[in-house]
Each structure stands twice: as structure tokens, then as C-alpha cells.
Amino acid sequence: CTEYQKALKSEDIALKFTKGEELYNAGKYSKANRLFEQIIPSYRGKPQAEKLMFLNASASYEMEDFYVSSYHFERFVSAYPNSEKLEEATFKSAKSYYELSPVYSKDQAETITALEKLQEFVNIFPESQYLSEANKMVKELDYKLEKKAFEIAKQYNRISDYKASIAAFDSFIIDFPGTEFREEALFYRYDSAYQLAMKSVEYKKKERLEAAKKYYISFKKDYANSEFLEAATDKLNDIEKELENYSTKS
Amino acid sequence: QNLSYANGKKYTIANITVKGNTSFNDQTIITYSGLRKGKEILVPGEEISAAIKKLWNSNLFNDIEIYLTEVQGDAAYLEIRLSDLPELNDVKITGIKKGKKESLIKDNKLQKGVKVTENLITTTKNYLQNKYRKDGFLNTKVHINTVPVEDSIKKARVNMVLAIDKGEKVKIENINFEGNTVLSDKKLKKAMKNTKEKFFFRVLKRSKYIEDKYKEDLESVINLYKENGYRDARIITDSLIKNDNKTIDLALTIEEGEEYKFGEITFIGNTVYSDAFLKRKLRIEKGDTYNGVLLEKRIADNSSPDADDITNLYQDNGYLFSKINPVETNAEGNVIDMEIRIIEGKPVYFNKVTVVGNEKTNDHVIYREIRTRPGELYRKSNVVRTVRELSQLGYFDAEQLSPNFINANPEEGSIDMEYSVVESGSSQIELQGGYGGGGFIGTLGLSFNNFSLKDIFNKEAYKPIPSGDGQKLALRLQASRFYQTYSFSFSEPWMGGKKPVQFSTSLSHTKQFLYNPQTRDADKDKRFNITGITFGLAKRLSVPDDYFVLSQAVSFQHYNLKNYNTGLFTFGDGYSNNLAYTVGLSRDNTFNDPVFPMGGSKFSVTAKMSIPYSLFNNTDYTGLKEERENNEAIIADSNKSDLVRNEAAARVSEIDQERFKWLEFYKIKFKGDWYTKAVDKFVFKSSVEFGFLGAYNQDRGVIPFERFFVGGDGLGTYSLDGREAIALRGYPNQALSSQDGGALYNKFSLELRYPITLKQSAKIYALSFLEAGGSYDSFRGYNPFDVKRSAGFGVRIFMPAFGLLGIDFGHGFDSLPGQSQKHGWETHFIIGQQF
Description:
The complex is a heterodimer of chains A (250) and B (835).
Chain A: H1 3-9, H2 13-25, H3 29-43, H4 49-62, H5 66-79, H6 86-100, H7 109-124, H8 131-158, H9 162-175, H10 182-198, H11 202-222, H12 229-249
Helix pairs in contact in A: 2-3, 3-4, 4-5, 5-6, 6-7, 7-8, 8-9, 8-10, 9-10, 10-11, 10-12, 11-12
Chain B: E1 9-19, H1 26-33, E2 40-43, H2 46-57, E3 61-72, E4 75-84, E5 87-94, H3 98-107, H4 118-134, E6 141-148, E7 157-165, E8 171-178, H5 185-191, H6 211-227, E9 234-242, E10 247-255, E11 261-268, H7 275-282, H8 292-299, H9 310-315, E12 323-330, E13 335-343, E14 349-356, H10 363-367, H11 380-392, E15 402-409, E16 414-420, E17 427-436, E18 439-451, E19 471-480, E20 483-492, E21 501-516, E22 521-540, E23 548-562, E24 574-588, E25 591-592, E26 597-609, H12 621-636, H13 642-660, E27 666-677, E28 683-694, E29 708-710, E30 724-726, E31 744-758, E32 763-776, E33 788-799, E34 803-812, E35 824-831
Parallel strand pairs in B: 1-4, 5-7, 8-10, 11-13, 14-16, 29-30
Antiparallel strand pairs in B: 1-2, 3-4, 6-7, 9-10, 12-13, 15-16, 17-18, 18-19, 19-20, 20-21, 21-22, 22-23, 23-24, 24-26, 25-26, 26-27, 27-28, 28-31, 31-32, 32-33, 33-34, 34-35
Helix pairs in contact in B: 12-13
């Protein structure tokens, strides 16, 4: 019968608290949390609860059980707005969501929550020591959302739904003005317009060729040195050639 | 007194005291209230109300008040007065069965320690009354008393006594109508779908009085009149008369009004469609009996999402915001002129299309299946179809899949679309052991329906297996003393991610051993091996419509026999190769749930064929056939010496080896299933199947592989020699075909299904069936009416982790081949296959 087992079975909540704290400091988070969970109801409303709840949340965080830690830190923040651990708790609650954020190609609910939480944190603690880390995380999360939207628009191009691709890239460019995918987005939007025009039914062809040409111009204006420029210009030649048919006829 | 927060005075809290009947520490309450000594507050002000609110929200206290007891300069003395809410100690329930008590406590959250509020008592009471009323206990009375517990513990605690008196179940003795001349009592009673008179033979709908349903039924009565031209009909009075404790009467007085007819029908506001076109859609002529219900249906039929009505005409062409209102302009002489006012609005285009909730499945797998894409015109039918098809992927729970319109902008004509999905387990593990075929059979099957091949070396993706790319991967090992089967299959629905061309491949290997009667074990020296590989491509077509799929496959199988002498093979040592091309055309528009389709149809035609070798390999099969017949005659002739007969037998195996070196055959199959919704939630499934195995060269003959085995549950234990187990319930497995299998079969089946539950965790449905089918050895013996018939019933359970499980009891009305009395009852267990 170890000391931990004794504490676990004991009726003495103070003993459980000290033992739990000891375990927590020794890095035995899972064991510590088992003790904490037993005594949290009894400490509700008492002054020691603040520390207890913080340790409970931190232990979950250290165990990488981020679903639980995000929730516990959030509760801590709303229960103890005057706590000296407020900054750390707010940050860790946001960071828990950051850790939960999945790969870009899956549902981004946690990414969006993480961004909101981080923004809130930066607003409340503009001088925080965690600021640079927070900013780094925001950047990473923003990148995920950009990549997601970009890949979806690009997939429409890949499955030859060029109309959808153009529309999706249009929204993408508006929604993410500073994105690092902008160059590629402009290129693929142009490519989609080009493909749409070349495969177009006759009565819409001229209009679509001209639209594609416009996309080329806006691409070239911003990215005159693009690695895609050569490919883009080749396509433009095709467009010009096709357009000649219409000018000679009229 | 008109004090606003703005003119409150500022005080510093000098002290706070707590008074009242509470077991909580004063300090605890003060801390919890958020007020503390030294804090500056406004009186009156937000801080005090915030503190009261906070204490209230703790759900621990009652009668909370905060007083300013003393003021000294700007120092304020506060007092918090409150009392603890009593805790629930014990619940006593009378009047219902013991077994129901626990669920009742759970439903109403009446656990020990809960704070007893007025609200808790009232909601519990209402809940119980409504609950029993719904079951027809109209006279249910519920009394709730609380009794304080007095003991040494200071905490306020109460015992709750719940007295339930359900009374007798109330049935409806009579429904009396008055004032109806045009429609008979009988017709009106029939219109009342959920309120029925009590009647001994009423089985499907019991007679009970449920107020909500009754109100709906009154509406139905009026609608029945409306359908018959009496648009002014109304129910003047309806009363409920209590006869005794068991029965009630319902009395309805109806004022029928007069009969009306349709007059001129004009359209206003339509620019997209002409009057004439809309009139054809409406299919109501001047002079028809006025039928408000029909008119409504032709304009907007709410009972079916893809009905042929005017609203859907607009909805399917982008006019999401269109509004169509029929207005009566003139009702002189009982002839009603109608004006159908149409506000078309702008055609709507999709702006953004998103998916949420895909925690496992990658975007690209979902977006490529979506038929509503950015920049496209809104069409309701595309939304309906997308939902249908996303559910059929099998990755998401069909019941929870919902399309949501967001950011609707009628001025610009744009809308965003969000599909909300909930992932469901799409992997199945099959691990089973059992006795069958003369020994222990163990099976290990793994099938992953949403696999991700690219993540197979990515350690992080194993939670628990790499998933999300929509690929299917299945592994299956089966072994007994007599045979072993290994198979592996993989498929990718969008090869290369560009076009919906499904690529699939499978590999398999089986070993069979003959039974050794001496050792009563498998004889490892006598074996039959089959190794096969298949590559297939399936492509979704756009013509004639895009529910069609064209599939092609090339397969190769190598059969290898060693000392395997059975009736089936005259050559015990030898081999056979089966190189075949399969082409199939199928159409599937069943919806919504693949486990329990509610409608649509599914059919497929496939042809599997080998190269017609005999056309060009210069073998004289006619000669071989004759020689074989001669030799067979010698073998059968008992007057010949053993030596001669053995020689003849050797020659027969040589000939057969020559005939089956490369299998030459063609096989044609047809299968069709139709699902139709019958009354209520009943679904009717009818299906037809047909299969034929033929030879190009009659002299070379029909091959011993690839045959049909009719009868039983249709589960193929080993189907690797191309054989096909065709289910026909009510008979033992494969009993209706001859020993070597049939070359031809047909089957007809009718099934009536009823869903018991279609929840995500387990889908259960009951079924009853009628089947008939037959297996024939050649086309000459074919008679589509010479079939074996059966009927029966059963149940299916689908659980995401286990797949489909079921049991059927079938009764065979006909005799098995070679027997004379009818077969009778047969029980079938179904694992992992759908009928």
C-alpha cells in the first residue's frame, strides 16, 4: 500500500491536497489529478479552491489532455478574475485550443476558437511575456485557414470545375488579403478562367477569353517576376490566338 | 423612488456580515459574492446586483438580500441575508412500477443532493402529467410533497414524496359528428388519423386521446372538406364528454358551408415563366371543384422535397427567395377567382460553400461530392442530392447531416451554404470463431472504409488508424482445418483526384485440403489452391443520367490442383487459368441511409467473359468431346477390364485438362432492387435477380467454376473459384442447386421493412419477406416458373463497429431437390451482408 493509495482512500481532504500537490510537482500529473478531482467539490467556495483549480487545469494541460485543460482554465479565468495566475491561465486556455487545432484539411472549429481566445488574450495582456508566442501561434493558425480555403479553391480547378474555382479564388483573395498564397491564387484563378474559356461553348467563348485575359493582367501586374509567369504567358498566347478568330470575323 | 445607477453614492466597504440559515462558512459566501472589504462600490450600483446574481446562480441559496446596515462617512457596512436551499434527501414514488422509478428519477434529475427549487417541483409535475397523458392516461394526477428531514445534520434537507395516480387508460368510445350532410361520419372519422374510436380489431393504432394529435385531426377534418369544395367549412364546437373513468366521447359540430368551384386563375408577377406554362404546372381548370388543399399542393407541396410544384420550379432554377401567394379575388356565386401572386426575386448564386464537423475526413473527399459549388445557380434539387450522396459515403451519420443556408442576401442574389456533418465510425472489425464445415473456423476481418493510404507511414495519423481520404482497405483471413483464405483489397474512389473514376484492386489466395477419412483430418497432400488478382475501374457517367456507373475489371485466377480428386474434377493433378474481363453498368439512386434506404432503386447488369480461345487455338473440341464420350462409355461399362477403364479415365482427365486449361465462358447477371415507401415508416423492397453462365463453344462445355449456388443466407464462405452464393431464405445453404452449381438462376423477392430505430449508435429494422427462386443446370431446363418459394421474417441490427448482423426465420414451401415433402422452417444468421 503506497502513500498515494493511502491518500486516495483517505477521508482527509487536506492530506489529499498536499499529496496531490507533491505528485504534481514531481510530474505525476495523472495521479495528482485523480486526487484533485476527489476533493474539488469539497473545496468549492473555499479560498484554497483557487490554487486547486489551477493545479487541476495545469495537470490536464501537462498531460496533453487539451480538451479538458482548455475547459478547466476557462472556468478558472471566469471564477477568479482577480487571481495572480490570471494571465497564465488565460494564455494556457487559448494555447490548449491551439494544440487541439487539427490539420488544415479537417474541421477548423478549434482553430477559430483558438484565434478568438488568443486575440482576447492579446487585448487583455498587451504587455504579456507570452506575447511573442501568442503572435506566433496566431500566425500559424491563420496560415491553416488560408491553406484550407486555398486548397479547396484549387481542388475545384483540379476536378475541372473551373467556374467554381474562379468563384472560390475570388472569395479567397477578398477574405485573405495578405496571404502568402496570393500569387498562386491569382495564377490558378487565371488558369481556371483560361481552361473555362478554351473549353467554352461557342457563344460564350469570346467573353470568357477576354475575362481570362483580364485575370492575366492583374496577375502580371502584381507578380512580374513570378515563377508561374512563363506558364501564364504561354496560355495568354493561346488566348490571343483564339481571340484573333473573332477579330477577323467581325 | 427613482434611483438610477448614475446618481449612486460611492462608498468603501468597511465590513460584510452574513446572516440567515446557512451551513456555509460566512467567509465562503462573502468570497463567492465577489464583494470584499475595502472595495469601492456605488450604492445603488452594479456591484450589489452582480453579487446577488452570482449568489443566485450558484443554485445553493434562497431569499438572497443585501442590506446596507450602517453608513459612517463613506464607509459602508453590508449584510448578506440568505438561506440555504434544501437538498433532496430521498425520493419516494408511489403509483408506478418499480422498474420505471429509476428512469423517472434520472429523467427528472431527482438524485440525492439536488437543490429543491419550486421550479424543480413544477417541471417534474408537468413532465409526469404530460408523459402519461401521451399514453392515454388522461386522468393522471400527480402530487408532490416535500417533508423536511430533521436529524443531527444541520443542513436543510427534504424528502420528496411523488404520488402518481395514473387512473385508468382512457379510450374514446364514440366520436359524434353533427351538421355533416355531404361527408359521412365514416369518412370524417377516417380523416382523423390519430384519434380513433375504440374498436376490438384495431391493432395498428390504439384508441387514445392526445390533445395535440386531436387538434391536428380537427384540422384534417376541415382539410377534407376543403378538398371537396367546402372551403368555408368549420368546426363550431368540439367537446369532450367524460363517460366514466375509462372512456370519453368526442362531439363535433360542423358547419359545412356551401360548395365552391374554381373560377378564373391568373398569374401576376411572373417574368421567368409564361402564364400558359405555369397553368400547365398547376393543372387546375376553371370550373373544377374548389380544392384548397390541392391548390396548396400544386403551389408548394410540403410533404415531399422534390415534388412537382410551382415553388420547386422556381427553387430549382435559382429563385431561392421567390414567394408565391394564391389570393382569392372574387367569390361571387360560389365561384372563386384566384390570383396567384408571384414575387420572383433575383436568381441566387452560391457564394461560399463550406463543410463543418469533418473531424476525420479530409476536405477534398467531401468537396468533390458536393453538387452546390461556388458561383453556381442555387438549385434546391442539388442541395437535396448532395445531402443524399454525402450520407451514402458512409462516413457521416445520415440522420444528422444538414444543409444550412447562411448569409442570405436577396438584394445581391447570393447565399452561403454550409453542410454540417457528424462523423460516424466507418471501420469494421470482424473477429469470429465458430464450428462449421467439420471443424473450427476462425475469421479475422478488418475493413476500413475511410482509409488514408498516404498516411500509412505517418506515425501521428494512427489514431487508431490513418483515415480521412475516403479509400477503402480490407483485409480478411479465414482459416479452418480444411481451408485457408487470405484476401486483401483496396480502392480509391477518385483515382488521381481529378475525376470520379474508382480504382480498385484485390489479391487473394486460398488453400483447400481434402478430407482424409482415416485420420479424420485434412489431408495436406491433397490440395486445391486458388490465387487471384483483380484490377477494376468504375466511372460515373453523365448520360443517360448521372446515377449511372460503368465499371470494368480485369481479373486473373490460377487454380492449382494436387491429388485433388473429387466428382467435380476428373483431373486431380493439374491447373486451370481464368483470365476474364468484366463490364458492368449500374444505377443507384436509393436514399438516404445506405443501411435503410427509404426510396429509389438500384440495378446492375454485368457481363463477365473470357477470350473465346476456341475460335483460334485450332483445337478440335468436337473431336475431343466425342472421344470423351466414348471414354466415359468405357468407364461406365463394367464388362471392361480395370486396366482399360483406368486408361479411359486417364484420357478423360487429359481431355478435361485440355478443356479447362484456360477457362472459356461468359456470364451475364442482372439485379434490380426497388424501394418504395408504403404507409407510415414501412418500406417495401422488391427485387429481381437473374444470372446465366454460358459457353462460346458448346463442345468445350460449361466450365465447372463461376457457377451459381442458390439457397440459404447467401454468405459466401469461400467464393474464390468465382462461385456465387445466391440467398434464398427458407432453405439450407446452396441446397437448391445441383452439386456442381447451376449455370442459370433467377430469383424474385418482396420484402416489407419497418425501422425500429435509426439512431447513429445502432440501426435496427424488422422485416418480412416472400421469395421465390430456382437454379437450373442449362438453358434447356430453364423454366422461370419452376421455382422454390419461401416466406418468413427477421430482424437486422447495424452497428457502426460491427456492420450488419441479423437473423431470419424462413419457411420453405417447396421440397428440396430429391425430396418429396416441403422443407419447412430454416433459421439464417446474417453477418455483414445486406439482402
